[in-house]
Amino acid sequence: MDHDFKTKLAAERERVEDLFEYEGCKVGRGTYGHVYKAKRKDGKDEKEYALKQIEGTGISMSACREIAFVQYIDVYVGN
Known about the structure:
This protein has about 80 residues and is α+β, with helices and mostly antiparallel strands. The protein has helices at about 5-10, 15-20, 60-75; strands at about 20-30, 35-40, 50-55. It has a single domain, classed as Phosphorylase Kinase, domain 1 (2-Layer Sandwich), CATH 3.30.200.20. Strands 1-2-3 form a three-stranded antiparallel β-sheet. β1 (about 20-30) and β2 (about 35-40) form a beta hairpin. The radius of gyration is 15 Å and the shape is globular.
């Protein structure tokens, strides 16, 4: 991948830390990392979110499947 493209993409990408405020409450531990309770910093809603901090380097195929499943649930089951 082109270095300039990666640099530009990194600068434009929103970071989770910029969007959410961790409430310091660790909800649990999953196979791929820890799960924390958080709320949006911008106050667009008062929902509580569960954010998973993935450990290690790279993402395994199992982790990719988990991410896809959570996205599916959000689209078809969530609000």
